[in-house]
Amino acid sequence: MRPAIFPFLPDPGCLLLLLVSWLFNPARSEITSLDSGNIDDILNNADVALVNFYADWCRFSQMLHPIFEEASNVIKEEYPDKNQVVFARVDCDQHSDIAQRYRISKYPTLKLFRNGMMMKREYRGQRSVTAIADYIRQQKSNPIQEVQNLEEISSLDRSRRNIIGYFEQKDSDNYRTFERVANILHDDCVFLSAFGAISKAERFSGDNVIYKPPGENAPDMVYLGSLTNFDLIYAWTQDKCVPLVREITFENGEELTEEGLPFLILFHMKDDLESLEKFQQEVARQLIGEKGTINFLHADCDKFRHPLLHIQKTPADCPVIAIDSFRHMYVFPDFSDLSVPGKLKQFVLDLHSGKLHREFHHGPDPTDVAPGQPIQDLASSPPESSFQKLAPSEHRYTLLREKDEL
Predict the structure, then answer these.
(1) What is the Cα–Cα distance from 81 to 83, expressed in whole angstroms?
(2) What are phi and psi of 233, to 5 degrees?
(3) Is 200 part of a structural domain of the chain?
(4) What would the pLDDT profile of 341-388 be if each residue is shown by its tens digit?
């Protein structure tokens, strides 16, 4: 006869202790560690992914780890499907190739991805569980307002950039492509849609997408390409939503500074739209080929008094055009010369060639001095960069100053 086997029965008190422990200390979610072997697959299959680029030796990274993990726990309760929201991390010391791929210049950096595409704007909000969780909820909210009648279109805020899609039905490839574009660009434009009978009057030749630019009398622009071609409609929408001349504010200053391009800035009074329009026209006419080498911006004179003082100007002197190279600031001599053909372009070319810097230190180049006039070495010191101070703070990040640190 086999000996009787009695299952181990734990003490009832132990069971109660384990149950209480489980209730008050739920299992912690795993933060997905990314490497070159899994990063594309994981990000491409995630509706939204928030990736923490960190280094173990960075104290700011160490401070963020428990906060990031707890925010992941909170969001996992609300979005249990693993592909709805992914919290992931990259050890940049171990995976320098990934850090270089995404141009990481500071630790920790939180970047948002949608279906594998990295969003231009990284997370720069408060480093708290509540703030990060709220940010993800915002990213998961519907970026498109559904129009219930076409009269709503006539009451749109025309100070904003509005993209409106008219579709026969929501369950269509056309709308899904439109929705994907809206998810990426909703911070730059207002997206609206109308369906079925409501949109019929605007669908005389099929589903239709239009852009309503700022200004009450500005004419609509119609998208003429394929509505299922994501690359085409995204490029068209981005061109409309992200203007050639952007406004710089204290909220987006860090983001613009981190792009690393010098600033060509028009300082103007907020209600001086005429000067802004002239500046926009001349940038488009003279400098479209310089896009990608310099950022074209405009700034409120009242809000940015400090940079004006740096170049010995006040709001009373506005409009004023200046370049901030992140080393020095240089002033365009006379706003009235803006419309002189090639004058603004030459100002930018003189920055790239180093002429502006040389002339501040040594006076006019010899080729710019009239024959017979003596060449003088007029030593001077151009004002230091003012907008460089809007760059990421060293009290918030470990800044990587040398390329080889990655």
Answers:
(1) 5
(2) -70, -30
(3) yes
(4) 999 999 999 999 999 888 766 666 555 545 555 544 444 456 777 676
